[in-house]
Amino acid sequence: MSAQSLFDLTGRTALITGSSQGIGLALARGLASAGAAIVLNGRDEKKLAASADALRAEGVRVSTAAFDVTNGAACAAAIERVEAAGAPIDILVNNAGAPVRRVHWTELDEPFLDTVFGLNYRAPLYLCQCLTPGMIERGRGVVINILSTAAWVGGTDTVYAYASAKGALLTLTRGLARSLAPNGVRVLAIAPGTIDTEFQRTGTSPEMLAELVKSNMLGRMGRPEEIGEVVAFMATDAASFVVGETIHVNGGFYMS
Fold it and tell me: Is pTM beyond 0.90 here?
C-alpha cells in the first residue's frame, strides 16, 4: 500500500459530535482533508447549517444531524436516519463534552453529576452502542474519544466532576478497544491540552489561562486544527496497528 493511500479516507463517512464550532469543527476539517465525507452534529440547527455551508464552500461533502447526544433514544433514531439517507458511518468521533460550569467539589450534587456524566461519559457510550454493531458487521470502523488532560492530573477543585467523567471515558476506551479489536474496529482517544477556542477564552480567567499556557513546553495554546490533524491520522490505515491508545496533544505539558 502506498503512503498516499495509507492516509486516504476517501469513501468513508465520519460523524463528529459537537462539531458546529471550535475543536469539533476543526476535527471535521481534518477528516475531510483526508477525503472523508462528514456528518456534523449539534443541537443548534442554525449553527450546524452555517458550519455545513462553510465546509461545502471548501469542497467538503457534508451533511448535518441535529440531536441530543445525551439522550440514548434520540441517538438511536438519529443514527438510523443518517445511515438510511447516506453511507454507513465508518468513523465516530465522540467530541461533545464540557465541564458544564465550575462547581467546587464540596458543592457537587446529584443533578449536576448526572448532567456532567451524561454529556462526557454516557453520550459516547450511547453512540458506540448505536454504531459499532454496523462496524462489526462490515469488519471495519474507528471510534475516537476526545478526553482531556484533566483525566490524568485530576483538574482543579472546581472541575473534579468533569475530570472524573473523562477518566471514566478513558476506561471505556480501553475496554471497548479490547472488545472490538477482534472484529476490525479500532477504539482510540486523544487528550488535548489547552486549546485556543472561544470556550477556553470565555470559561477561563486570564490569570488561569496564563498559568495554563506556561505549563507546557511550547509556551502557547494549541490550535484546534492541531487536534484535527491528529484525529485524521488516527482514523486512517496509517494508524492501523494503533488500538486502545491515547495520544496526548498538549505541547509537552507532562514534561514541563
Answer: yes
